[in-house]
Amino acid sequence: MSGTRLAPDAAGPTLCVGEILVEIVATTAGEGFLEPQPLTGPFPSGAPAIFADQCGRLGGTVAMIGAVGDDDFGRINLDRLRRDGVDVTGIAIDPGVPTGSAFVRYRHDGSRDFVYNIATSAAARFGWNAATEAVANRCAHLHVMGSALSMPGAWAVIEPAARAIRARGGSVSLDPNLRKELVHDRRTADRFRQLVVSCDLLLPSGEELEHAAGLDGVRGTGAASERDDAQRTAAAIVRLFELGVGEIALKRGERGASVFLPDGRRADAAGFTVDELDPTGAGDCFGAAYLTCRRLGLPVERALDYGCAAGARNVTVLGPMEGAGTRAQLDAFMRATPRRA
C-alpha cells in the first residue's frame, strides 16, 4: 500500500497555518477555572505549531505561518520551532499584543476544559502579504487544522496558499480538530466543507469522520450501537471518497488507527500500552508523523506505525509538544513498548 496523491517531501515543505500559543496546565483535576489553581507551564503549543514541530522532528521539511507577541511566550515558541527544523520566516512578531494562550484543566473523567485567548492575541493577527506569500510559494503541501478556519487571518492565508500549491501540483491535508470552545458559524462550516472535498488526506478522530461526510448524529452505547457505529463509519468513508477525498487516516485514540484508500484497501495498527500523562497534542503528532512518512515515501503500514508511536509517545510527557519524537526515538519507542491486544 504505497500509492498516494500527496506531494513528495522533495518537492517542497509542508506548510502549517494558524494559531501559535502557550499552554498553561492546572495541576489538579476538576471542573474548569472557577477557583484558584496551581499551574504549570508555559509550554509551546497551538495545534498547527505542534503539527509543524513533529514534522520537523521526524525529518520532514516544514514551514509555519502565524504570529506571536514580542514577549517570552512568543520567544519560547520560536526557539522550539527553530530548534526542531521548522522554517519560521512566515511567523510575524507583533509588539502590540501578547502571544496567544490556552489554559487547560483536566476533569476527573479525563476530558478537558480550555480557556483560550486567541482572537485578542497575536495568534489571530497575521494574513496574506509578501512575506507569507513567499513562504507559501516554497511549499508543496498545505496542512490545515479545523481550529484555524474561524480565524479570518488564517483563512486569508489558507485560501490563496491552497490555490497556489494546487496550481503547482501540490497537495492538501485536513485535520478537522473541532473544538467546542471555538466559534463555528456558517462561514466556518462552508470553509470546512470546501476543504473536505478537495483534500488529499483527511485525518479525523471519532465522530469527526461522520461530520466531515455530512452524516452527523448521536452515537449510542452497547453492542447494538457498536454495530450501528461501524455501519455509520463505513457509510462515512464511502461518502468521503465519493466527495473526492484521497486518503483517510482515522485516529482511534488508545485503540490505534486505521487507513482507508479509495480502492477499498485498508490498514490497521494497534495502539501502544502507555501511561497517559497529557493527551494534548497526541492527535497532532499522529497526523504529522503519518503525513511526513507518506511524503517521505514510506508505505501506509509503516507510516501508520510511526503515527501511532508519535501519538502514544507524546501522551507520556507533560506539555503538548514535549514528547514529539525523532525517527530514532520513535524506532526505540516501538521496540520497547508493547501493543494493545
Q: Globular, elongated, flat, extended or rod-shaped: what is the shape? A: globular
State the low-pLDDT regions, or none. none
Structural category: alpha/beta
Number of helices: 10
Estimate the mean pLDDT confidence: 91
- Main sheet makeup: 6 strands, parallel
Number of strands: 13
Proportion in helices: 25-40%
User: Beta-sheet strand percentage?
Assistant: 15-25%
Give me the strand/helix succession: EEEHEHEEEHEHEHEHHEEEHHH
The span between the termini is 24 Å
The neighbouring-strand order within the major sheet is 5-4-1-8-9-10
> Radius of gyration over alpha carbons?
19 Å
Concise structural overview:
The protein is α/β, with parallel strands linked by helices and 341 residues long.
SSE layout and pairing:
Layout: E1 14-17, E2 21-26, E3 39-45, H1 47-57, E4 62-69, H2 72-83, E5 86-94, E6 100-106, E7 112-117, H3 130-136, E8 141-145, H4 152-167, E9 171-175, H5 186-196, E10 201-202, H6 208-213, H7 222-243, E11 248-251, E12 257-260, E13 266-269, H8 282-295, H9 300-314, H10 327-336
Helix pairs in contact: 1-8, 8-9, 9-10
Verbal overview:
The protein has 341 residues and is of the alpha/beta class. The protein has helices at residues 47-57, 72-83, 130-136, 152-167, 186-196, 208-213, 222-243, 282-295, 300-314, 327-336, and strands at residues 14-17, 21-26, 39-45, 62-69, 86-94, 100-106, 112-117, 141-145, 171-175, 201-202, 248-251, 257-260, 266-269. The strands form three sheets. The protein has a six-stranded parallel sheet with strand order 5-4-1-8-9-10, sandwiched between helices. A four-stranded mixed sheet has the order 3-2-6-7. A three-stranded antiparallel sheet has the order 11-12-13, covered by helices on one side. Helix 8 (282-295) runs antiparallel to helix 9 (300-314). The model has no long low-confidence stretch (mean pLDDT 91).
